[in-house]
Every structure is written in C-alpha cells, then in structure tokens.
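quick one, 74 residues, struct below
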Amino acid sequence: MSPGHAAALRLTLNGAPHEAAAGTTLAELTQQLELTHGRFAVEIDGVVVPRSQHAERTLRSGEKIEIVTFVGGG
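---
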C-alpha cells in the first residue's frame, strides 16, 4: 500500500465482493451507491441497522451487507 492511501475493506455487498476505504461509514457507502433518497433497508451480518445509525456505523472488513430497496406498485 502506498503512503496516503487508506487500506481497503473487503466486504460482501448484496452477495458480490465490494471494496471500500477504511473508515467508511454506512452513510458514506449509501451515498456512493446513490441511495440518499427513497426507501431502503440495510442489514449487516443479519442485523438491520436503523437509518438513524448509518452516519456513526463504521464498516469493517469481512462484513456482509444487504441493501434492499422498496418499490411501490400493485
């Protein structure tokens, strides 16, 4: 790793490998995925994380993240 670059976290995001910079919060991840608006739920390692905790919840290597978006319709 070169100086000035944060270590990468290796995550599983919706069943696929994903990398994020060390120190990335759940809020930052959802912003990167352009999920800042609309209805969605996030689960980390089988536990739902309330949206009120997204800004303080720092991601850790090896975590399995599932993001589900809600679509209206009949």
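The chain has a mean pLDDT of 90.
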